[in-house]
Amino acid sequence: MIQSRSVLDTLDMIQKEHLDVRCVTMGINLFDCLSSEAEHLCLRVREKIRSAASSLQRECDRVSRKYGIPVVNRRIAITPAGFLLAGHGRGTAVALGRTLDAACREVGVDFVGGFSAFVQKGMTPGEETMIRALPTVLAETQRVCASVNVASSSAGINVDAVLLMGEIIKETAERTAAQNGFGCAKLVVFSNIPEDSPFMAGAVLGPGEPECVINIGVSGPGVIKRALERLLEEKPKATFQQIAERIKETAFRVTRVGELIGREVSDALGVAFGILDLSLAPTPAIGDSIGEIIQVLGIEAVGAPGSTAAVALLNDAVKKGGLFASSSVGGLSGAFIPVTEDSVMADAAARGYLTLEKLEAMTAVCSVGLDMIVVPGDTDAATLAALIADEMAIGVINKKTTAVRVIPAPGKKAGEVVEFGGLFGSGPVMEIRNAGRSAAFIGHGGRIPAPLQSLTN
Predict the structure, then answer these.
(1) Contact 286, 342 (CB under 8 A)
(2) What is the DSSP secondary-structure string of 122-134?
């Protein structure tokens, strides 16, 4: 039983330290919408979203007012679209994307995730249809987000799918060139994708999930930062054990806030409560940054030696604190390092302190991967694919989720700044050293086999 009194004692975290419920995501199973007729499929999908999510915005707003805790986004995650499109062509995939966009606009939802495919070992015709429709769907919709799982620790890396995603990312950027390739900000390539994450662009309702479920994403970089500042004011020579303990204590409090909100929304809607994802997801706002936490720990410039160790410490302590606070922690839970969405990370990249190579090293210990990375618009598809393959390898070998959300900004060169606005922020175009020199390697295609742990089940 969560006591609201103990949660309300944390009001300073909300008023002064940027604590919010980043998203309330309703997962909706759409398998019963399957139809051999495109029009019938889209009609069923629209009706089910209207029925399930018609009160989502109202209840989120009510609970937010009741506790004074901001709920930044209302979102929906659906059954992977690649499954729904079995037997259909590209036209149906585009129609489904437009239907999802329109339905979510009607119910007041900010984003819908689940235009997704699971192709880590192979690709069905329906999944390939969905993937090839992505540039059109992402260019013609505002709310639709997509994810493609191309690798797992049990299957290895589907390099054919990785190669295809390099081409899809290039085409998506070109189709949204007027917005600096923004369509790619709604597309993420995964290894070991979690099937219950509430965060976009990777939210999806996996096959083992309930008919309808509420998943919560809580974010509190500012809260962690301030807690560490207080600790280091009291004990300038605090040990790493003491630092980790303070992060755990703070993550515990943040998690309790999120679970209170999630359970009240789910009870009001008569929907199962799923998981709480305690991921430190930054925003462009000053004081709401993972980069600032790294600086508070004593690293003057993000990307300097020690940055990877700092992220490892932070990620581990956040997970431990959240797990102790709730039996429903899931999704990703940890620390995100999206460059354009974090003002300090973006500044470090612009100054040359934070390079793509250092970011890749940091992704080995963070919760996601190369996230919201802007690269030169003339980067070729093979180089993008090789970049994805490197990140997938980190996830596969280490049995963790890794992802790539990369944006080749059309017409932009390394060093220029690209503005996306809102939560997506702005950031520099980062140089890919030795671009164009991996085509022969990635062009082998096929599948990179799974590591030995795939035989342990």
Answers:
(1) no
(2) ---HHHHHHHHHH
- Give percent helix, percent strand, percent coil of the chain, each to the nearest 5: 50, 20, 35
Q: Is residue 447 situated within a structural domain?
A: yes
Q: Is 35 helix (H, G, I), strand (E, B) or coil?
A: coil
Alpha carbon separation from 368 to 172, 195, 374, 457 (Å, rounded): 22, 14, 16, 25
Amino acid at residue number 175: R
Q: Which domain holds residue 350?
A: 217-455
Same domain (yes/no): 110, 186: yes
Domain-embedded: residue 167? yes
One domain for residues 283 and 320: yes
In terms of domains, do 143 and 232 share one?
Answer: no
Do residues 320 and 439 share a domain?
yes
Query: Which residue's structure tokens are 């499954």?
Result: 83
Q: What is the pTM of this model?
A: 0.91
Instruction: Report yes or no: 390 and 335 within 8 Å, Cβ to Cβ.
Output: no
What are the backbone angles phi and psi of residue 302, rounded to the nearest 5°?
Answer: -60, 130
CB 261 within 8 A of CB 20: no
Beta bridge partners of 24: 74, 216
Residue 242 and residue 312 in one domain: yes
Q: What is the DSSP string of 227-265?
A: HHHHHHHH-TT--HHHHHHHHHHHHHHHHHHHHHHHHHH
What is the count of structural domains for the chain? 2
Residue 296 lies in a domain: yes
- Residue 31 is given by DSSP the state G
Query: Which runs of consecutive H residues, i.e. helices, occur in 279-353?
Result: 290-296, 307-325, 343-350
**Cβ density class 124-139: b for 16+ within 10 Å, e for less:** bebbbbbbebbbbbbb
Report the CATH number at residue 181.
Answer: 3.20.70.20
SS3 419: strand
Secondary structure class of 364 (helix, strand, coil): coil
Q: Helix, strand or coil for residue 278?
A: strand
Q: How does pLDDT run along the chain (457 residues), one tens digit per residue?
A: 444 544 445 555 555 555 677 889 999 999 999 989 999 999 999 999 999 999 999 999 998 888 888 888 899 999 999 999 998 999 999 999 999 999 999 999 999 999 999 999 999 998 999 999 999 999 999 999 999 999 999 999 999 999 999 999 999 999 999 999 999 999 999 999 999 888 888 899 988 888 999 999 887 788 889 899 999 999 999 999 999 999 998 888 888 888 888 898 999 999 999 988 888 877 777 667 889 999 999 999 999 999 999 999 999 998 888 887 777 887 888 788 889 888 899 999 999 999 999 999 999 998 888 999 999 999 999 999 999 999 999 999 999 999 999 999 999 999 999 988 877 888 899 999 988 899 999 999 999 998 876 556 5
